[in-house]
Amino acid sequence: MTRRSCAIYATGIVCAHLLIVGIALLVGQVFQTMIQERIKKEITLAENSRVLDGWINPPPPVYMQYFFFNITNPEEFFTGRAKPHVTEMGPYTYREYRPRENVTYLENGTKVFATNPKSFVFLPEMSVGDPEVDLVTTINIPVVAVMNEVHSYSFFIRSLISMWIKSMGVDLFMTRTVHEILWGFKDPLMSKLHNMKPDVDEIFGLMYKKNGTHEGEFVFHTGEKNYMDYGKIDTWNGIRNMDWWSSEQSNMINGTDGSVFHTFLTRNELLYIFAADLCRSIHLSYVKDIEVKGIPAYRFAPPADVLAAPDDNPSNAGFCVPVGDCLGKGVLKVSVCRQGAPIVVSFPHFYQAESKYINAIDGLNPNKEEHETYLDLNPTTGVPIRACKRAQLNIILKRVLGFPQTKFLNETIFPIMYVNETATIDDNSASQMRSLLFIVTAVSNFPVIIVGMGAILLLVLFILVCKNRQRKTKDDTAYTPVSNKSEDSPETHTSQPMKNGSYIAMSPVEAQKC
After folding, report:
1. Contacts of 176 (CB under 8 A, 6+ apart)
2. Per-residue pLDDT at 460
3. Across the chain, what does the average pLDDT equal?
4. Residue 420's pLDDT is what?
5. Which pLDDT belongs to residue 50?
6. Torsions phi, psi for 352 (to 5 deg)
7. What is the DSSP letter of 239?
8. Residue 37 phi, psi (nearest 5)
9. CA separation (Å) from 82 to 50, 69, 412?
10. In Å, how far are 12, 139, 305, 450, 458 from 16, measured between CA atoms?
11. Which residue has the higher pLDDT, 69 or 104?
């Protein structure tokens, strides 16, 4: 066997092995499984500052920015002379700390129990003013809550309650400091009710009792059985389904808490998040590719159908309580899970809501850049790189018979304040993430590299075989057959001497003469 043949056979053998091994690795997803396990370990190291992988202290700082709507013409509004005009005050920024506590593995590590207490520290350098000094004129929510509670009482009783409230000097609007409205103050109406009914708290505040407390007890899936379940909520406060809403689908607790997601996200999937403060789950869809601190990410945001009217999205009919009592597009009544005032949530400035809600209030300017909620997630690891959660708190104002101060009111959804909760990966974690993604890219492409090398060698093998065949063809055609010329030929006698045997000459080149 010649060296050329050996080279061809060796190339063929190596090519076959590379192609078989590479295709087997791709089909078997061997490296994908290895990457998933590596990513789990790396995320554990990168996201946790304490123990119990994946469930303690994510490092990106979380900021809560509060914006308030200050009524500039309360007298004109409540007397029916003009529609309300508001100016935006804020931001008043707080650093939010949200460690997971009481972390306990369950069911052989397939689930984990945790609570998530939140605490807030004011950051004056990121705020526009002093919350303990700045005054806000807004709707008196305790008064509206009382009117909402007694709306089913007789006209006579409602009138007596109205006069009782008026005798205390309490009106439909109030002026308080930002700090009081957020963290609580002793309300005169609530104090009177507390004396008559001790289970009524005399302190009122939008964030009262929320500093240092948690939103409930969660049990999460760890992804041990299926990586697609990583971070998904199994139970919240011991339940898998709520009972506030009017349909089984609306009462489902779907998705994660928004802080973690499974690895290897795709652009065509919907991500579900359970928002305890909204008393429901919402979904986010892919918007666009983006890059944050050199890290590739997919941006996901709630589509318009999340808060669409039931006419446009029939599945939202389950959020109408009682059945059929529905609001329009872009708003959600959550008083069903928050006893008292008729609270409504929306996106800031009624972004994505019907124009009638926007036009009812002067001073609103909804826009996507400032008021959209979104998540930027690295698709390989599922880790949030940047997040902006934006939600607005509103209250329903309407005419209530027996309360003369409401006689000029048409039903209005009035904005109180909105929050912008933001987090962006810190520089140290971003550096670790970039290193991890480099390793992942190199390792995940290894089977492709093997197949590519096999394909190149296959091309080389093809070229070698073709050249070898061409050479054999030339060797076969380079010689003529033995001459059969007769000995008696004149040409033989005159041109060449007679020899024993036959004359052999190269063809087509003539034999040279001596």
Report:
1. 135, 136, 138, 185
2. 75
3. 84
4. 97
5. 36
6. 70, 10
7. B
8. -65, -40
9. 56, 17, 13
10. 6, 77, 53, 11, 8
11. 69
156-191 residue pLDDT tens: 999 999 999 999 999 999 999 999 999 999 999 999
The total of other beta-carbon atoms located within 10 Å of residue 481's CB is 7
- Which candidate, 24, 21, 23, 13, places its Cα nearest to that of 460? 13
Is pLDDT of 237 > 70? yes
What distances in angstroms separate CA 370 from CA 126, 304, 349, one per listed residue? 17, 16, 10
**Residue 410, C-beta contacts closer than 8 angstroms, at least 6 positions apart:** 398, 399
CA torsion, ordered 66, 391, 335, 233, to nearest 10 deg: -110
Q: Is 118 helix (H, G, I), strand (E, B) or coil?
A: strand
248 CB neighbour count, 10 Å cutoff: 9
Contact 163, 150 (CB under 8 A): no
Residue 350 Ramachandran class (φ > 0 left, ψ -120 to 50 alpha, else beta): left
Pull the structure tokens for residue 211: 């500093």
pLDDT band at 372 (very low <50, low <70, confident <90, very high): very high
Q: Are 120 and 95 in contact (CB under 8 A)?
A: yes
- Is residue 281 packed enough to be buried (19+ CB in 10 Å), middle (13-18) or exposed (0-12)? buried
Q: Which of 124, 133, 89, 382 is nearest to 258 (CA)?
A: 382
- The sign one gets for the Cα dihedral 348, 354, 359, 360 is negative
Count of CB atoms situated within 10 Å of the CB of 124? 11
Q: Provide the 3-class DSSP secondary structure of residue 490.
A: helix
413 exposed, middle or buried (CB, 10 Å; 0-12, 13-18, 19+)? Answer: buried
47 and 261 Cβ atoms separated by less than 8 Å: no
> Using the 8-state DSSP alphabet, how is residue 316 labeled?
G
Query: Residue 478, Cβ neighbours under 10 Å: how many?
Result: 9
Identify whether the C-beta of residue 242 lies closer than 8 Å to the C-beta of residue 253.
yes
Report the C-alpha gap between 430 and 353 in whole angstroms.
Answer: 36
End-to-end CA distance of the chain: 40
Q: Tokens representing 129?
A: 């003013």
Degrees, nearest 5: CA angle 100-438-428 = 45
Neighbours of 126 (CB within 10 A): 13
Residue 353 has pLDDT above 80, yes or no: yes
pLDDT for 87-140, tens place per residue? 999 999 999 998 888 889 899 889 999 998 999 999 999 999 999 999 999 999
Q: Comparing 453 with 333, which gets the higher pLDDT?
A: 333
Is 110 exposed, middle or buried, given 0-12, 13-18 or 19+ CB atoms closer than 10 A? middle
**HEC secondary structure over 249-303:** CCCECCCECCCCCCCCCCCCCCEEEEECCCCEEEEEEEEEEEEECCEEEEEEECC
